[in-house]
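Budget justification, computational time. The allocation requested in the original proposal was used primarily to generate structure tokens for proteins on the priority list. As evidence of use, we reproduce two of the resulting records. The first is shown immediately below.
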Amino acid sequence: MELKDNAKETYIQLLIDSLGKKQEVLNELMQITTRQQTIIDSEGFEEDEFLKTITLKEELIKSLDQLDRGFEMIYDRVREELNNNRKEYIYQITSLKELVTKVTDLSIKLQALEKRNRSKLEALLANKRKNIKNSRLSNETVTNYYKNMTSKPEAQS
């Protein structure tokens, strides 16, 4: 499909805008993930607050998916033009490359932070499970003790 010059320029600008928006969304995700890290590292784990951050992240991830799909659709329309006329679009291509690098770097940092948070959260939950199990055993021990004591005559206790 042959595109008119103004359509080509518009599509290329949409690609640049899409990557810029993706960078913004990734920055928001980084802030929320950092907030999750703070919640996990705090003395009193605030479950409600943590769940709110998960909800926010889900919305942002959906937004990222939409941006990616839109980017791919537009790029498919102008890929050939960009490849065939690199010199004509050198500034736009340079801008796209810079944005792709920034987005990729941000994605890598975000994945690393997510991985650290996951490990910390798993350790926190394992510790909570252990405490719950110990508490349950303590309650059972106390209950059994009182059952034994109430079933014996007073002289034997």
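The second record produced under the same allocation is shown here.
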Amino acid sequence: MAVAQPSIVYRPAQASDEAAIKALIRAVNINPMGLKWPRFLVAVAENGELIGCGQIKSHRDGSRELASIAVQRAWRRQGIAAEIIHLLLADEPPPVWLTCMDSLVPFYQQFGFVEVKGGDGRSLPLYFRFIRTVFKPIQKLSRIPGYLAIMVWHNEIGH
């Protein structure tokens, strides 16, 4: 299903979008792993330029992750990422997980995501326990500011 707003069309990705998706993910410097174009929803400008994307990834442990939310710099702060997130979550049963740097927690909270804090992590799906364990030493070595937040969505999207 394609959804339109002035000069922007939201649609499932096509094979021809693969290179543009990968280029956008590299440009915004987010996790480049697991970029399988059939899972993506894309935002395309009138001129055919891919200006935003996002996906729902399924992991071996059965968990599903909202991931790869990216918008070209010139198109930011126009609600494109929000529309991509709303469309991706519209047909997804909860729970849906995500990881992000702590500075992005307030952004994702507006969609009903809640940060999972503290504890021993046993409440986390196996994939997210692994990510938390692997990321901590990488973060310390690279001096990345903040921390990796793990969030979960259990309810309806607030519009």
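A brief technical remark on that second record: The helical segments are 18-27, 80-90, 105-109, 126-142.
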